[in-house]
Amino acid sequence: MSTPVCRRAEEVRRAARDSAWTDELRVHVAGCAACGEEALLASFFAQLASETSDLPPLPDAGSVRLAGLLSLRRARAVRLARALSIATALAWTCGGAAAAVVALRAWPLPGARLAALAGAIPRPAVAWLVASPGSALLAFGAGLLIALLAVGALDPEPAPNVS
Amino acid sequence: MLSKSLTAPILPAAPCPAAAAGRADACPEEEFRAFYDRTAPQLRAYLARCSGNSSVVADLIQESYFRLLRSGFRGQGEEHRKNYLFRIATNLLTDLFRRRRGAESTQMEARPVMAPDDRLNLRADLSAALGTLSPRDRQLLWLAYVEEASHRDIARITGLRESSIRSMIFRARARLAGRLREAGFRPAQGGKA
Ligand SMILES: [Zn+2]
Known about the structure:
The structure holds two protein chains of two kinds. By secondary structure, chain A is mainly alpha-helical. In chain A, 74% of the residues lie in helices and 0% in strands. In chain A, helix 1 runs parallel beside helix 3, helix 2 packs across helix 3 and helix 4 (61-106) packs across helix 5. Chain A is rod-shaped and about 105 Å long. Helices cover 62% and strands 0% of the residues of chain B. In chain B, helix 2 packs across helix 4 and helix 4 (78-99) packs across helix 8 (151-158). The two termini of chain B are 26 Å apart. At the A-B interface, helix 1, helix 2, helix 3 and helix 4 of A face helix 2, helix 3, helix 4, helix 6 and helix 7 of B. Residues 6, 8, 28, 32, 34-35 of chain A line the site of zinc ion (ZN).
């Protein structure tokens, strides 16, 4: 176990760090095991922290930022391309659905046959779609809205790995 | 020096509105440069002394600031942001030690206690003395003594429980003090150690 903490430890640490010793504090440290250890450690770290000659040069701030930005923009471009693919797929799906609704309204007979064939599709939904003239447009608009929301909801930036 | 009066948690991150959209360029160049100039020397020392390997330091610095930019984290002031940066760096160090387990970092860890007559001669020998400790001990002591971080901030930076920081530092201190005494290190003007 280490020595217990002394109430003057903080004072000793500051003195060691700043090389600002008073005679009185020096006397105290000589007779206090806890402060002796504190002085030893604080002095060691003060010297180590002030020694920079063996450290590599710092990268330039501008190049650090630029490299980060370039990397981010690449990642952002990838995400944007993915979002556009999703939006395109959704737009095609909505357009197809809208065209189908228009076709069903324009030709009720094949529409009815198709609806009858598609047993899995709930009747009320088909009836509602075919019922009003604006329903096709509404369905298209809703699809587009979903597509836009999907794009907007995409996480723009993954959280940093700092867990 | 890391903030002692920090009350807000480092995580979860509190990005500024612009940066929340993941825009690192929301951090203007001048602002980044000023933050970098103030924090990079300290980060470099932390990474170099705790990794014990200067050749990885530049990459770790680059990666730390990149992740900070990417996170868009601004915090509640510079100290908060700096703590977050140190947390990122600490995680990078942890990854580095994991990857290099069995290689150079553990050679450093496994270094035997210095012989009593192998007197510390400052400079490289100071680093060598620190290198006799485990990576975790090095981080804890560096943050406590050089960055003068509070136990709360150390817990946030290292991801350890705040309640265990005190005893961990206590033990790490004792280990390092023992090594330093064996090596004959004496405080510069501190009287008897
Ligand atoms: Zn004392």
